[in-house]
Amino acid sequence: MKTIKLGFVGSGFIAKFLTTAMIQVRNCELSAIYKRNGAEELASYAKENGLGDPKLFDSVKELCNHVDAVAIFSPNFTRLAIMEEIADAVKEGAELTGVICEKPLGRTVAEARQMVELARGAELKTAFFENQLHMNVINNALDQLRPQQKVMGDFHLARSTEEHAGPHSAWFWDPVRQGGGVLSDMGCHSIAACRHILTPEGKGPSFLQPVAVQAETSLLKWGQPKYRKQLKDTYGVDYEETPAEDFSTGIITFKNPETGQLVKGQFTDSWMYDKQGLRVAMDGLGPGYALEVNTLISPLEIFIGDEAAEGVADAEKALEKSTASRGLLAVHPNEADLYGYAAEIRDMVQAFSKGEDAKLTFEYGLEITWMVQAAYMAAEQKKTLDLTDDIVKNEIEKYKSLIAQGKGADLLYS
Ligand SMILES: NC(=O)c1ccc[n+]([C@@H]2O[C@H](COP(=O)([O-])OP(=O)(O)OC[C@H]3O[C@@H](n4cnc5c(N)ncnc54)[C@H](O)[C@@H]3O)[C@@H](O)[C@H]2O)c1
Questions:
Q1: pTM metric for this prediction
Q2: Ligand 1 center to residue 363 CA distance, Å?
Q3: Is pLDDT above 90 for 313?
Q4: Helix residue ranges per DSSP H, 212-284
Q5: Are residues 228 and 345 both part of a single domain?
Q6: Residues 245, 270: contact at Cβ < 8 Å?
Q7: Structural domain of 261
Q8: Greater confidence, 140 or 320?
């Protein structure tokens, strides 16, 4: 099998995590990195771990001439401009096979649609990185339950949550640059995971049709004066003027187009989960069978007493978004695998080396953006939206949430 040479645009948190995951994947190397913050360190890390000797490039276009696929791992507000440069590079002769983009594909449906058009216009294969659909804990559970599902019927309900104490970069907190708050940031995972759990065996990721959505967006912790000040001092974002939601929950109803059966996905996401660190929790309930996932339950625990804690400089070593560095701590032996990063890269490498799209395409990423934006609209309008109604669909197409416009104060403080 051909080795896929990857070029990364973005060398921050997710780029480092995915590079760690690459250590567990064959037939790929990190060959180029766009020169921004963290690029040198990431290049050294890749080299030390036998993933190649990445060259640093000052321009995205130049990077495109040295790789088979480009991965967009930069902040949400940079997506389109980078995709445009990639498409231009192809027009000018860069021999790229594919393009990868981290979630979310766009801050609005219009942006995500443009991403699809630019990628397809350049005849590129696509991989949308939604890691949770590649999580072995979910997929192994689904495999185990397929015989019961066949006899008893499909899942009725899936519940999916992703929560931590808040993001690590200023741009994430800024609703304008990020495209919203926690619903845009992590609701996209939870909505995708619900739909995945509910999808009958053998059907593709776009099989279930979203037919209705209800949702809430709230500001529970980071709008309080003490925490607003903390945000302003640490990240320079002003939640009095331009807040984003730190809590979101909702229900999407999906229809099986073959049987007409309606099933529900309930998502809950927050940036105020002041426990050990990131928790992804899900369950799926079918007739007579169920699955449950809680990523905070690890087979590995460590204990650090007060005296020894003074020596721990980096709490995040224990677990993504760790909040504590002492006491009884959950530690994951292999987080990159747990969250599905290794499996999503493996899927992309196998697909691109055959000249095919990955399992999750940009078109799929657009569908998830569409559902996330529909949820924002439902929360803003405080009603359940009929997603089969052409008027509603048309509105979602052009929609940009008040929160993403920086006008969320009335909604979130009322
Ligand atoms: N799948 C997941 O669970 C997951 C987790 C975290 C982040 N993400 C996604 O990954 C993306 C990046 O997030 P992150 O946490 O790594 O952010 P980050 O802030 O840690 O890193 C961003 C990187 O992009 C670079 N950058 C900034 N502006 C740029 C520009 N204009 N052009 C090119 N590069 C630029 C920065 O220098 C930095 O290297 C986001 O879209 C986010 O939603 C996904």
A1: 0.96
A2: 21
A3: no
A4: 225-235
A5: no
A6: no
A7: 134-333+369-413
A8: 140
Domain count, the chain: 2
**270 shares its domain with 405:** yes
Q: Are residues 254 and 350 located together in one domain of the fold?
A: no
Q: Report the SS3 class of residue 277.
A: coil
The distance of Cα 384 from the centroid of its chain, to the nearest Å, equals: 25
Decide if pLDDT at 323 tops 90. Answer: no
Percent of the chain surpassing pLDDT 90? 91
Q: Given a cut of 80, is residue 289 above it in pLDDT?
A: yes
Strand 327-331 relative to strand 262-270: parallel, antiparallel, unpaired? unpaired
In tens, the pLDDT along 118-156 reads 999 999 999 999 999 999 999 999 999 999 999 999 999
- Domain of 280, CATH number, reads 3.30.360.10
Task: Please tell me the distance between residue 310's alpha carbon and the centre of ligand 1 in angstroms.
Answer: 31
Question: Which residues, in sequence order, are bridge partners of residue 268?
Answer: 161, 249
CA proximity to 224, closest of 243, 202, 205, 209: 243
Residue-wise pLDDT tens digits, 45-56: 999 999 999 999
Reference 184, options 257, 265, 271, 114; nearest CA is: 271
For residues 383 and 374, what is the distance between their CA atoms, to the nearest angstrom?
11
280 lies in the same domain as 230: yes
Same-domain check for residues 218 and 323: yes
Q: Are strands 4-9 and 69-72 parallel, antiparallel or unpaired?
A: parallel
Tell me the average pLDDT across 104-124. Answer: 98
The CATH number covering residue 61 comes to: 3.40.50.720
Q: Which atom of ligand 1 is nearest to the CA of 171?
A: 19
Ligand 1 — pocket residues by CB below 6 A? 9-15, 34, 36-38, 73-76, 78, 102-103, 131, 169
Q: Do residues 273 and 373 share a domain?
A: yes
Q: Whose CA is nearest to atom 8 of ligand 1?
A: 14
- Asked if residue 110 and residue 241 are part of one domain, the reply reads no
User: What residue type is 206 in one-letter code?
Assistant: S
Compute CA distances 338 → 163, 323, 329, whole Å.
Answer: 16, 19, 17
- With a CB cutoff of 8 Å and minimum separation 6, the contacts of 360 are 127, 128, 129, 130, 133, 205, 344
d(CA 300, CA 317): 13
Rounded-to-integer distance, Cα 372 and Cα 303, Å: 39
Mean pLDDT of all residues in 216-241: 98
User: Does residue 315 carry a pLDDT above 80?
Assistant: no
CB 31 within 8 A of CB 8: no
Question: Are residues 145 and 69 part of one domain?
Answer: no
- Looking from the CA of residue 78, the nearest atom of ligand 1 is 31
